[in-house]
Amino acid sequence: MAATMRDVAALAGVSLKTVSRVVNLEPHIRPEVIRRVRAAIAELGWVPNGSARALRTGRTNVVAVAVPHLQRPYHALLAEALVVESNRRGMQAAVEPTHRDPARVEAVLSSVGRSFDGALVMGRLPDGLDPELLRTRPVVLVQAEPVDGVDAVSVDLVEAASLLARHLVVMGRRRPALIGWDRFTSGEAVIAAALSPDSPDTLPRVSGVTTRADGAAAAESLLASSPDVDAVVCASDEIATGVLHVLAERGIEVPRAVAVTGFDGIDEGLFATPSLTTIDPGPAALARHALDLLLDGLSSTPPQAGRHVLAPVSLVRRETTLGQGVA
């Protein structure tokens, strides 16, 4: 049987009226009460009636999800998580591909207050975007470089780097190389410091890498310039897939000769041969944090903007570091 508002109230230990006030973003509710009600809603899977709420509040009850590129597997995965979480909160989500075009992003942001109640802006921001457009409306940045005065949620990159570094040390890897870590703000510095604390600047690296084809080309470059590399640490599973293709073509055994790791936890890594060790950034958790921040910003008494939530990650150990048949 589907959960009801009464079930939420009972689990949270509050009245029906309090649940209604939290859902409708009314002011003067203690933060701990809001947390209890939201936790109860999440645990029970209760979906508020969005249409009724829109009539009561005068809002559109629609949130924009600005996505750089839907053809990138992780962008699609994260966008889906944001849509699912928005729906779970009783809101509709409109996915808007921007292709990192500042005019497209500005068009989405300019529609906040008319077509959309707020916006979730994914990925690296395009050059030339006016940051004031982000600061003057309900916006949450998701996996993007931070902007002063704008709420944001991103993965804990330091934790991710630490997990990868410890795992590779345990597996006996001493000569790692990096591919594509400029994807993240300060990404190359963070991962290099974790992998080689004494001499991070000496690690071989290839930047400006995004696609499978880029990953393959980067692998060719690394094998030519640093043939003694024994681990390739990729900033995405997509890049790692291209690296694995080149290693297989060259007859280089993975992981006996070279270990490979990815980042994103997409399904393609599970079905790669060998299966790919990766960092799972937990898109569902990112989405929950993003919607929490956005709904706080939409409340009648929003907190001061500029909060940054770091979401935990997990290391998924598979055959590209453990060996075939071990994962």
UniProtKB/TrEMBL annotation:
<dbReference type="InterPro" id="IPR046335">
    <property type="entry name" value="LacI/GalR-like_sensor"/>
</dbReference>
<dbReference type="Pfam" id="PF00356">
    <property type="entry name" value="LacI"/>
</dbReference>
<dbReference type="InterPro" id="IPR000843">
    <property type="entry name" value="HTH_LacI"/>
</dbReference>
<keyword id="KW-0804">Transcription</keyword>
<keyword id="KW-0805">Transcription regulation</keyword>
<dbReference type="InterPro" id="IPR010982">
    <property type="entry name" value="Lambda_DNA-bd_dom_sf"/>
</dbReference>
<feature type="domain" description="HTH lacI-type">
    <location>
        <begin position="3"/>
        <end position="57"/>
    </location>
</feature>
<protein>
    <submittedName>
        <fullName>LacI family transcriptional regulator</fullName>
    </submittedName>
</protein>
<dbReference type="GO" id="GO:0003700">
    <property type="term" value="F:DNA-binding transcription factor activity"/>
</dbReference>
<keyword id="KW-0238">DNA-binding</keyword>
<dbReference type="GO" id="GO:0000976">
    <property type="term" value="F:transcription cis-regulatory region binding"/>
</dbReference>
<dbReference type="InterPro" id="IPR028082">
    <property type="entry name" value="Peripla_BP_I"/>
</dbReference>
<dbReference type="Pfam" id="PF13377">
    <property type="entry name" value="Peripla_BP_3"/>
</dbReference>
